[in-house]
What does this fold into?
Amino acid sequence: MKLERPIVFIDLETTGLDLAKDRIIEISMIKLFSDNTTINYYKRINPKGKEIAEEAFEKHGIKLEDLVLCPTFRQVSQEIYDFIKDCDLGGYNCKRFDIPILIEEFLRVNLHLNIKSFKIIDVYKIYNKAEPRTLEGTYKRFFGESFEGAHSAEADITATIKILNKLEEIYKIPETVSELDKYALEDDGLDLENKIKKKGDKILFNFGKYKDKTIQEVYETDPRYYSWIINTSDMTVQSKNLFRNIVKYIENGSKK
It folds into this structure.
């Protein structure tokens, strides 16, 4: 990998998975330079009494009592900020969770990390691009052979069912159709929190009662929905700032 500037790989443990409400309790970072030298950073963080969800504890095994003597995020925020300043960022599936929740923590202490100022190397997404999950490729990977009649409808369906059965055999994936439907949702959002997405030349809501409606259409028919998001919803500071900017974008466009 050729580096244009240092890149910091990040992994976080948190009190839970809610970007707006949960907190970072452990942060590990490795800064990689172009000459392959590295600098490490590690801290455990006191979430100031925020409860740790049972599902989160089962994953990382950290208890609140383990964090009593640790600094709060506010106390270490500047050193974390300085560690990643002027660097690109990387991690495994970091674009969906680690980076958004870190930005949210910064915003709470009035440190602003502009997402446009750095590139993101998400190894999970790169892996999925580098090894495309085509039907033929997946079938051969699981069964060690090409299947006859590829791209004929019946053969493709038969292969698809066999692959699903193999996935259930190998991996711990949900069993019900409803759970599998949620499990396989695709991340096609334009922002880190997947609140909006692009389809053709349109920008659409990607959540809530106006999912798949354009941002302009919602503003014209229910402008109070934007006010609710910005002023009263439980969304992250980052999302609220996003929708503030959308309102400015729409209003400026309507004045032209």
